[in-house]
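Just scan this pair:

***
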Amino acid sequence: MSSSEAMMKENQTLCTQFSFVAFSSLGELQNILFVVFLTIYTFTVVGNLVIIWLIWVSPTLHTPMYFFLTNLSFLEMCYITSVVPQMLVHLLVEPKTMSVACCAAQMYVFTILGLTECCLLAAMAYDRFVAICYPLRYTLLMSPRVCLQLAAASWMTGVVVESAQTTWIFTLPFCGTGQIQHFFCDIMPVVQLACVDTSQNEIVMFSVSVLFIMSPCLLILCSYARIAMAIVRMPSAAGRQKAFSTCSSHLLVVSLFYGTALFTYLQPKAAHTPDTDKATALMYTVVTPALNPVIYTLRNKEVKGSFWRIARRHPLSQTA
């Protein structure tokens, strides 16, 4: 950038609010999208509440695996709530604006929950590793105290790391039109509005993403490598099938979450386009949280069994 161009950019008025392009180009189709996303949001919140309730009232589900699933379900409700309600409002109104302070608040919540989910998925993989590779020591190695420590460490990592990163981002001056080529305050679309050179910020943010997204991912891969070796050594086909079934739901969730996260946050800046960013963001902010209740109920015999046992005890089912 030339010095004259830099001076022109510095002389622009600082932004006090952002405007979102979101899905404005779709016109009347935004009303249809409103109904679709509202339905998905309602299903996600209700589905995760049902999972939390089932685990709470079913003594057979009071195990480390379902303790972490309760954390994950609560996180997913907060995660989708940090984005979708505001997106629903913007589908119905013009102009689609948000103050800088509200944008910062949304980014704080969204990024903290995103990194916490990375860590929780790693803790869940470790739980499956201990259960399959060290079954006789499982209750000792995954005691309630250890589970609480792993969950607390996951949440604290998300809060500390992403609070620092988001605070740093919002120390940048934002100017120009303040138009964000997105439907929520994601990191890269906001950083692109800064009036100053952000190359150093982007290097640091990329390094943080590599460290704190890839580290849990590597822990998950190592855990499942050991699990695969243990399953192969099992003498009976029934034992192998049972061991694999306890991991399949978690593997699906990890694949969905990390597939979109790695594609979004570890690709170079030049590869980002508004359309691809919005498409991948819809996957990890809307679709993945909605699929988690389906994956953990339809593919989980213990959860389904608990649901039907409670349903059969309900007065309505008995009168029917």
